[in-house]
Every structure is written in structure tokens, then in C-alpha cells.
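Annotated sample (chain length 66).
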Amino acid sequence: RQWVVDHIDLFSNCLAQKLMTYATGRVLNHSEKHEIESIVKANHSKGNGFKDLVVDLIATKTFQTK
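Output written by the structure step:
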């Protein structure tokens, strides 16, 4: 638990990539991974909320065009 707290950005990035991979049903490409990194950084400034992360992922072009 403490490791997750200490490395929240790494955990959030991994979680976001796994969620997006599951949602799209395919492996993400390099530009999509970069887009997710940007979302995670923005989410960090908003307080690292899971709900905010999911909403931001749903709003991406990657998710919407699947």
C-alpha cells in the first residue's frame, strides 16, 4: 500500500494503460501511451481521483474511435 502511495504516478499510468487496453481490445501504440501519460499528469494536479482518471480516458479520441 505504501509503495502505491509513494509511486502514485507510475501506478496511475499503468492502471490507465490497462483500462484503455481493455476498453479498446487492442495494444496501445506509442502516441496513445504518450496521450495517457499526459492525462495522468493532469489528473495528478486534480488530486489523483480514480473517477477523474476514468472520465478523462473516456474523453480521449482513442477511446471514442476505438
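Annotation: Residues 8-24 form the longest helix (17 residues).
Annotation: The two ends are 33 Å apart (CA to CA).
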